[in-house]
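Quick one, tokens below. Sequence please?
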């Protein structure tokens, strides 16, 4: 299968001869009893020529040089087996780099999403800390403590009537 190649031949000066009175048979000229017609001998010669060409053609034979045109690039003629074989490692390298690029970009996007989520959690925590600090400050204010003491009259705590004493300690 590796040695099969598509071969396109153009044979000049070979025009089909139409014979309306002779029916076309599918038998080969060797098995039929009728004399060989020019058309049958042309077919056998063509078959023999194709057979010889297939025997002589190998996959390692150089291809005829083609002009590099925009149309040949668009049609895909540039991607011949020989060119792909020569540059297979370049194609593998490009595929590896492309997959690495996609993987790194995906990981970077995941990290950016995590950073945004953590930043929102941080700002939420800052707001909660500020709110709890203001609530604590409000509850610890002296006027609020005095109001709570007045409401609970059974408490032994009360406001001092005398100012605090200053004690000087000699050094």
């Amino acid at each position: 299968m590796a040695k099969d190649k598509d071969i396109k031949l153009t044979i000049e000066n070979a025009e089909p001869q139409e014979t309306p009175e002779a029916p076309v048979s599918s038998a080969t000229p060797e098995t039929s009893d009728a004399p060989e017609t020019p058309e049958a001998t042309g077919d056998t010669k063509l078959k023999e020529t194709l057979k010889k060409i297939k025997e002589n053609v190998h996959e390692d034979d150089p291809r005829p040089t083609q002009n590099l045109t925009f149309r040949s690039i668009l049609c895909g003629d540039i991607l011949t087996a020989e060119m792909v074989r020569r540059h297979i490692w370049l194609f593998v390298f490009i595929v590896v780099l492309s997959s690495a690029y996609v993987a790194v970009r995906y990981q970077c996007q995941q990290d950016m999403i995590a950073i945004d989520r953590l930043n929102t959690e941080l700002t939420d925590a800052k707001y909660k800390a500020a709110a709890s600090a203001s609530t604590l400050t409000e509850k610890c204010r002296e006027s609020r403590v005095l109001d709570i003491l007045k409401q609970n009259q059974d408490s032994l705590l009360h406001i001092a009537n005398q100012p605090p004493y200053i004690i000087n300690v000699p050094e």
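DSSP finds five helices and no strands in the chain. The mean pLDDT is 78.
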